[in-house]
Amino acid sequence: MNERIELSLERIKEIRSEKGLMEYQPFFTSLAEFLVNALEYDAHYEKNIAELHAELKSLYAPVSENYEESFVNPSYMCKIFGKEMGQLLAFLYFEEISLIPFAHEYAYYKDSSEKSDTMPDAAAQKLAIRLELFLEIYTSFVFAFEETGKAPKAEEIKDILYWYVSDYSEDYAINSVKERFSFQENLAYDIIMHSDLSKPNYLFRYGEYISGNEIKTAEYIASLPEEKIKLMADTFTEGFRLGFIAAGKDLSIKNTVNIRYPLGFERVIRTAIQNFDAMGLKPILFAAGTDIFSKRGLVKIGYVSSSFNRQAEYDHREDLALFLDGHLVTRKLEVLKEAYEENKDTVRKFAGPACMETFGETEFIPQEKDDCPAFDDASRKLQVSYQAKASEMANSYIHMEERSFTIIAFPIPEIGENFETLFDETIRINTLDYMLYQRIQTTLIDTLNKAERVHVKGANGNETELTVELCKLNNPEKEAKFENCVADVNIPVGEVFTSPVLEGTNGILHVKKVYINGLKYENLKIEIKDGITKGGTTTNLPESAVEENIMYHHEFLPMGEFAIGTNTTAYAVACKYDLFEKLPILIAEKTGPHFAFGDTCYSNEEEVHYVNPDGKEMVAKENTYSLKRHTNPEEAYFHCHTDITIPYEEIGVIEAILANGERIPLLKDGRFVLPGTEELNRALEEE
User: Fold this and answer.
1) For residue 509, which of 64, 192, 220, 526 is within the disulfide window of CB 3.0 to 4.6 Å?
2) Percent of the chain with pLDDT over 90
C-alpha cells in the first residue's frame, strides 16, 4: 500500500508541469498541486498558532477561498465544462479534499504501526484509492486528447467514478464497521490522551479544518479550573450511565462507547474517557464523514470541526445522486451485511453514543443552485430505501433494546462577546436540580394521564391550532402516558413526552422561527391529518429545504413525539442574551412544547420497560407504523426524528381535555398555570 502511494505521488508531481489538455489543464494542474501539498504537508506543532493556522488554511484554500471561481464549485464548473462534465469534475475535486485528514491519519500510523493490526492498512487505502482515482481520470483525458484532440465523453468519466464508488464500497463497509464499533488507539485517542492540552497547537494534528472557534475554545477550556472540567465531564458521562439505569438495561455486558465531540473540548473528553473507563467502557473515536462513502447530507456524526466552506458542503450534499442506481444500492447492502456479520460479536458489545454538541454559529443562508447534483424521484426513492434497510440492519446487530445514549451541548466563541458568560450559564442549565423538575413534571403527568387529548393553540402571531390524541391506559394506577425526562440521556432536564396516537391528531403546527440542522426556517407551517404530514411550507427557504432537511425525502412522516418542555431557566437565559436563533434543538426543545416528525422516541425499543420516578410504567411507545415491525419491518420505521419547538411566548394555551369534555389548562399565555407547576414561572418572571 505504501508503494502504491509513493508511485502515485511521484506521477502526480510530474502532472503539475504537464501541458496539452487545453481548457482542462488548469483543473488538473490545480488538483495535482493540491494532492502533493496534502501529502507533503508537515506541520511542526511547536510553531506559533498563527503560523499553523495560516499553513492549514492554505492547504484548504482550493475549497475555502474564492469559491465562486473554484474548481470545487459545481456552478462554476458547469459554466466552464457543461453541466454533466462540470458536475463530475467538481465531485472529483471535492472527494479529493476529504484526503487531508486521511493524510494525517496515514502519517500517524506510518510512524506508529504497532498501534493497530488493521487501521494502518485502512488509513493507507483511503489515500491510495483517491490518488489512483485522480490518475485514472487524468490518464483518460490524456489518451482522449492524444487520439481525438478533445476531451473524453462525460459518460466515460462517470463510468470511472461509478466503479470507484461501487468497488470500494466493500472495503469502506468493512473498515467502517471496525472503526465505528471497536476501540482503537488511533490518532484521535493519541491526541486526547497524550497531547499537551494546555495550548491549542494539538488541534492541528487532526488534519481537520481548524477555525478560530476551535482555537479559542481550546484556549478557554485550558483556562478552566479542574473542578469545572470534572463537573462538565461527570454530567456528560453520568447521564449516559443513568440512561441504562432508567431503562433497566445492563451496562455490564457492554465494553465500548462512541464519543462524538467538537474539536477544542479534548480536555473535557480526556476526563470523560477516564470516567467511562471506570464503567468498563473503552472509547470509540472517529471523524465525521465528508467523502462519498460516509457523508449523509448535512448531518455529521463523529468528532467534528468547523466547516471549511458551508456553501460547498451544501452544494455537494447530494453528490451520490450522480451514481446511485439499483445495482449500487444492492451492492452496498450486501457488503454492509457481510461487515456486520464478520464483526457481530464486537458490535453487540457497543453501548451507544455519547454526544457533545455545540451552538452559536453565525446564521448560514444557503444559495440555491440548479446545477448542483440532486436526487430525482427515482434516485431519491433508492436512497430512502437504502437508508431504511441499512438502519434496520444496524439495529438488528446492535440490539437497540440493549443500548443507550446521552447528548449535551455547549456554546462556541462565535456566539459573541458573551461567550464565557454563556458558557457558565450553559453549565448551570446542564446541572439544574433534577429532583425539583422530577417533582413538578410528575404533577404535569398526573393530569395528562387523565386526558384523552391535548389542545395546543398559538399566540402573538403563532397560528398553531392542534389537537394531539393520547393513548388509553389499561391500569391508571401503574401506567403513564408521558415519560418524566430528567437529566440522563437528554441533557439538560426539562420535558415530559409521549408518542401520540396518530388517528385523531389533527391541525396546523406553526413556528415563526426555528433552526433545523443548521438552516433557519421562518414561518414554518406543517399541516397534520390523523398524525401524518406530507411536507410543509416556509417563507424564506425553497420547498427542497423541507423535503431534504425535515422530511428526509419521505413522501409522508408521522408525528413521532409530543412533549412539553419545562426548562424555563434555559428559556430565560435565551431571552436575556437573545439566543433563540442559536440554541441547539437539545436545549430549545426544553423551552416550550415540541413536536417531532418521524419515528417515536422508542424506535426499536418498544419492548423495553421505562418506569417513571413515581413507579408508573410509560406505555405510550407505539403508533400504527411502529406496530408493523412484527409483520412488515420495512414500513415500521422512517429512520429520522426531527424536533420542532414552539417557544413559550408563542403559546396561547396548552390544555388537557378529559373524557367528559373538561379542559384543564397546563399553560396559558406562556406561563404554567397547573397547580403545583407555578414554580417554573419564577425564572420567566426574572428574565
Assistant:
1) 526
2) 73
